[in-house]
Amino acid sequence: MPPSYKLTYFDLQGLAEMCRYLFSYGGIEFEDVRIKREDWPQHKDKTPFGVLPILEHNGKVAGQSIAIARYLAKKVKLGGNNDWEDLEIDAIVDTMNDIKLKLTPMLMEQDAAKKKVVLEAAKKDIFGFYFPRLEAMVEKNKGYLVLGRLTWADFYFATIFTVCESMIGEEILAGYPNLKEVREKVNGLPAIKKWIEIRPN
Amino acid sequence: MSPHYKLIYFNARGRAEHIRFIFAYAGVEYEDERISREKWPEVKKRMPFGMLPVLEIDGKAVAQSNAVARYLARQYGLAGRNEWEALQCDVLVDTLGDLKQVLAQFRMEQDPIKKEEKKARLMRETIPFYLSKFEKMLSENNGFSVGSDITWCDFVFAVSLENFEHIFGKAALDQYPALKALKIKVYNIPSISAWVGKRPTTES
């Protein structure tokens, strides 16, 4: 019998890796569908809003990586123990998403010279503003982003900022040992380590 | 005993209005603190990530408008009937967020030529793409964005549609009857209508 969950994305880590991590962590079997770029046009119109990733389950479809991650996190017990804890996790995930959104113009910039200028500004205004605050939160939360324990917020951080880093082409966590450690801790979880060994990309 | 809520934002609808709608609908009292532009630099330093809105619940401050809205929705029965419906609320709110992101990028564009290109693309492709998809979903779901009753997602839509009308004119929604009907439905809810009648009038 095929797995009851099907996750469709491109053959990349990108926005979907956090969801793949959550499935792996929870030991939930899932169909890990990867669309080739050249095949995307024929699939695009079949998705609810023309974007990936999408999650299919029991004949229903849902898009939006963070919404899917929040839903999966509950299933694998990486959410809050109550609504207030969920709120604290959501607040930090949305804050990290703000960082990612602010980085997008720079990440999408094609002109190499312009990109360099925007990157330098980002280091000062975006990383320079947010990372010290996140670093302090990890200090306060015993090595995790929030609630003093592992949550899907740590999974968001580990995956999304790795993607940002590879798109920027240089280390962005230098000088933030706590944040580096969050990523190492997540990637070192047995189920995640195993996933990293077998994942296609 | 009800928690003590203080919502801190600018004197605007902006990113806080859907939260105010939730409070109004639930009949929950809260302090609706509006920070003036002059006071903002000093207040900014005290906010968790230098941004608004922030909700204080019994003195504990938390940021991020949708995180706050989702929390309040859960407290007051506005998050759908089950986890999949809760997911659907999140999906639609985030998808609307994607559209708003494109709008924001257009507004932030400095280069006048690029800005014109972005505007044309928005008007010709992006806005019609999203609105017609939302329109289809609403008409296939009996006029609710999720499930069969009001959710916080309907408030997010209604507030966004009000802004849409402000920007593009009242007739702009005529070609999207289901979206228009949703906005009317929400604004006709007695508690919402009462709030809209007494809230400070602001430009955005």
CATH class of the largest domain in chain A: Mainly Alpha
Number of domain modules of chain A: 2
Strand proportion of chain A, as a percent range, falls in 5-15%
Percent range of helical residues of chain B: 55-70%
Helical element count of chain B?
A: 8
Most extensive chain-chain interface: A-B, 31 and 31 residues
Structural class of chain B: alpha+beta
Strand content of chain B: 5-15%
Q: Strand-and-helix sequence of chain A, N→C?
A: EHEHEEHHHHHH
CATH topology-level fold name of the largest domain in chain A = Glutathione S-transferase Yfyf (Class Pi), Chain A, domain 2
Low-pLDDT runs of 5+ residues of chain B are none
How much helix is in the residues of chain A?
A: 55-70%
Protein name (chain A): glutathione transferase
EC number (chain A): 2.5.1.18
Domain GST C-terminal (chain A): 82-201
Organism (chain A): Zophobas morio
Q: Any chance you could write out the topology, listing elements then pairs?
A:
The complex is a heterodimer of chains A (201) and B (204).
Chain A: E1 5-10, H1 17-25, E2 31-35, H2 40-44, E3 54-57, E4 60-63, H3 65-75, H4 83-108, H5 112-140, H6 152-168, H7 177-188, H8 190-198
Parallel strand pairs in A: 1-2
Antiparallel strand pairs in A: 1-3, 3-4
Helix pairs in contact in A: 1-3, 1-6, 1-8, 4-5, 4-6, 5-7, 6-7
Chain B: E1 5-10, H1 17-26, E2 31-35, H2 40-46, E3 54-57, E4 60-63, H3 65-75, H4 83-108, H5 112-140, H6 152-168, H7 177-188, H8 190-198
Parallel strand pairs in B: 1-2
Antiparallel strand pairs in B: 1-3, 3-4
